[in-house]
């Protein structure tokens, strides 16, 4: 079960968003803009879509339309749509996230983070729309931005590098390049472990499991997938639980996998998530 919330402070929200306690709930309210963004990220990771959107609305009211935090809020909302398969709608928001950075200092760490989040978001949006070449170009732009900023802040941007590895692995999977997907998902897992982000490690391991489906023996992929399912359940990360159940179903999980998939999807809908409508 998710953790019980401790007294409100910014460190608790940071830990829920990108640290050791992604299942922390209920989450304390905050008037601090950075902590508010962390709260929205954590709510989204738990699949509490209505609550996450409400927090992002409050944050944008506080920040106004421009700047790094406004950009991060917008790309975070895009990620909520993308989790539900709504890539075209997400791409509009990710484009706005880039535009919100107009005039931001090039060497500002927050601006670099926000720019990279928007670029990897746009790449994932393009991938979801079947535009693999565009996704690759956007990933190259993100990598160049990180390389450029790395000399100024060499220890920063670990989260952005993990995200870059994620979308690179996903793009490789979509093109059938399992070796590249394995390499980048493993790098993402290593980066997530170093940063101490439980949620990021679980997602990275899910991608590793997917990358192993290219092997003749499905056992390693299935074992890691089930481990991801257990951890996402333990931490209350419903979107990752849903994604893991989908992979498990593809690996022969049968009725048990479909039961978890349907339970997770129903909970997502109850919490304000609206899945994309698939058109023939």
Automatic annotation (TrEMBL):
<protein>
    <submittedName>
        <fullName>Uncharacterized protein</fullName>
    </submittedName>
</protein>
């Amino acid at each position: 079960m998710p953790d019980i919330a401790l007294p409100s402070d910014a460190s608790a929200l940071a830990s829920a968003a990108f640290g050791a306690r992604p299942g922390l709930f209920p989450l304390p309210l905050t008037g601090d803009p950075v902590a508010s963004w962390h709260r929205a990220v954590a709510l989204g990771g738990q699949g509490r879509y209505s609550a996450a959107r409400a927090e992002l609305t409050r944050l944008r009211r506080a920040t106004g339309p421009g700047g790094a935090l406004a950009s991060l809020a917008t790309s975070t909302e895009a990620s909520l749509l993308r989790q539900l398969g709504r890539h075209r709608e997400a791409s509009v928001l990710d484009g706005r996230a880039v535009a919100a950075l107009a005039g931001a200092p090039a060497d500002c760490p927050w601006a670099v983070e926000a720019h990279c989040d928007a670029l990897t978001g746009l790449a994932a949006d393009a991938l979801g729309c079947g535009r693999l070449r565009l996704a690759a170009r956007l990933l190259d732009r993100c990598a160049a931005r990180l390389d450029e900023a790395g000399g100024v802040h060499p220890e920063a941007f670990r989260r952005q590098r993990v995200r870059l590895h994620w979308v690179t692995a996903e793009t490789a999977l979509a093109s059938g390049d399992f070796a590249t997907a394995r390499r980048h998902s493993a790098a993402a897992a290593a980066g997530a472990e170093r940063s101490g982000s439980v949620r990021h490690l679980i997602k990275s391991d899910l991608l590793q499991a997917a990358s192993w489906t290219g092997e003749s023996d499905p056992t390693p992929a299935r074992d890691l997938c089930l481990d991801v399912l257990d951890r996402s359940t333990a931490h209350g990360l419903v979107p990752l639980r849903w994604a893991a159940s989908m992979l498990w179903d593809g690996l022969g999980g049968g009725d048990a996998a479909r039961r978890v998939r349907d339970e997770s999807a129903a909970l997502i809908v109850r919490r304000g998530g609206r899945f994309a409508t698939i058109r023939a």
